[in-house]
Amino acid sequence: MDKYFVIDVGGTDTKYGVLNQDADILEKGVTKTRSDQGLDGFLEFIKELYEEHGADTKGIAISMPGVIDEENGFCHTGGYLTFNQNQPFASLLSKKCNTKVHINNDGKCVALAEYWKGALKGCRNGLVMVLGSGIGGGIIIDGKVLRGQHFFAGELSYLCTNIKDYKNHQSMFGVGCSSVSMINKIKAAKNIEDENFDGYQAFELIHEGDEQAVAVFEEVTKSLALELYNLQVLLDMEVVAIGGGISRQPILIETIKKNWDHILEELPYHKYSSYMPQAEVKACEFTSDANLVGALYSYLNQYKQMK
Known about the structure:
Elements: E1 3-9, E2 13-20, E3 25-32, H1 38-53, E4 59-64, E5 68-69, E6 74-75, H2 89-97, E7 100-105, H3 106-117, E8 126-131, E9 135-141, E10 144-145, H4 173-176, H5 179-190, H6 199-208, H7 211-235, E11 239-243, H8 250-266, E12 280-283, H9 290-302
Parallel strand pairs: 1-4, 4-7, 8-11, 11-12
Antiparallel strand pairs: 1-2, 2-3, 5-6, 8-9, 9-10
Helix pairs in contact: 1-2, 3-9, 5-7, 6-7, 7-8
């Protein structure tokens, strides 16, 4: 069976692996992302990984940040890899490594992984929302990832949640409703100065019923539920899969569902019609390997190698 070298480029770490066509991971590892030496240094970094771990594979598939035209391998933006802006990254790396290269946006790769073998399997229309330092996303419509005219579809962090204060950074969905934002709001509410305070400790407070932590949690999950309602009106989804580390907490999914129900019950339209379809909300099935699996799926589709 053919093997592929797959890379997930993160802001701090880069994960890599050798996967077969069924997405079985035959080898994997992690290293620090080399992003401080510009485009040439980054291309050399990927080449070194490929030569050491993937030289006997059929090609390279990469999940990376930025607004990406995956069909042409072009980065319109690079996210935190700012040197990738307006670069034909796939062709540059292909020439350097003398092999096929395919790239796609990291949020879209997570959605493709869940569609292929995870929470969206068998679903024609769905959404993946990844809660982290921002809010990543990928939209599946009629069994395909939605790219948009400008390859911007699914960039959920850019949604504005407060028209009365849209200039405020906290009015951006990816800032005000991310998991990092929730943790920081709990720290502020509790006057916690510990720099190592994290999501696990935040959820300990929530599970203990701490009044201030629960108030922040309710505020954030109501905002998440409201945006899911808005997205449901636009997309009419079957399933919404929530990802990110905090999605492992069952109370998160339960509370988003509860707040979505409350929103529907209280909407003015509800008194005229009770028909307001909801998507099923569940946690993503993949955790750390989602981007690897999704990048492989995208590669196989690009080169028409899906079984």
